[in-house]
Amino acid sequence: MAKPGPQAMLATWETGCRQSPQERAATLLAYVTGDDLDVARNTDVGTRNVLLARFLTALTQDSLDFCATCRCGERLDVALDLDMIAGWPTHEPGFRLTLQPRDQAPIIRLPTSADLAALEGLGHEEARGRLMARCADGRVTTEVAALIDEALEAACPAAAIGAMVACPTCGSEWEATVDLPALLWAELQYRARALLREVHELALAYGWTETEILALPARRRANYLQLVST
């Protein structure tokens, strides 16, 4: 997976600032993979998260911490095992699950970022019902819905990522939801703003344009910034 250049990072950041979380998740996937946005939107959520985890692993070179808040108010930094997530299964766009026995259950298309974007703002039960309707090719009863949940969890475990957390203050234990697109977005925002500061300082010092500055390798930009600060 090739590392995108600084121009692509800034363009992705500017686009993502105007988007909803699920739309932004597809934009981030397109940024990471270099695929068209339509391909990213129609990649299943589990595969999307695995690919984002692989990119984050290469970007951070270490485990990534995320913040979880306990019901007592304590904020905890929790280490996330990106290598484990990066090794989970992926699927080609359009992959479908056939539940057994076939005469009692529909064929299921794995949910995508486009599906989740269409459900933003809905309550949990309404969103779940509509998601089943979007992804199943037949009638979904309560019993069949339970089978679908089990099949989806087995086929794409990265679609819903959780991490066990224990609060040292009150002793509570719970499974915190991990939002990988949000974690990558936070990292990208930090790096984009830092890059803009570099451009600003070098433009003031040397009169170069943004295009000229971004064309410099990162190490050379750092060397020039060091000279400017001395």
Could you please describe the fold and organization of this structure?
The chain is α+β, with helices and mostly antiparallel strands. The protein is built from eleven helices and six strands. The strands form three sheets. A two-stranded antiparallel sheet has the order 1-2. Strands 3-4 form a two-stranded antiparallel ribbon. The longest helix is centred in the last third of the chain and has 27 residues, at 180-206. The model has no long low-confidence stretch (mean pLDDT 91).
* Backbone structural class: alpha+beta
Instruction: Give unreliable regions as ranges.
Output: none
Number of helices: 11
Largest sheet: 2 strands, antiparallel
Cα-based radius of gyration, to the nearest Å: 21 Å
Largest sheet strand order:
1-2
Write the layout of secondary structure elements.
Layout: H1 6-16, H2 21-33, H3 37-41, H4 45-60, E1 64-69, E2 75-80, H5 82-86, E3 96-98, E4 107-109, H6 113-119, H7 124-135, H8 142-155, E5 161-166, E6 173-178, H9 180-206, H10 210-215, H11 218-229
Antiparallel strand pairs: 1-2, 3-4, 5-6
Helix pairs in contact: 1-2, 1-9, 2-4, 2-6, 2-9, 9-11
Features:
230 residues, alpha+beta, 11 helices, 6 strands, 13% strand
Quick synopsis:
By secondary structure, the protein is an alpha+beta fold.
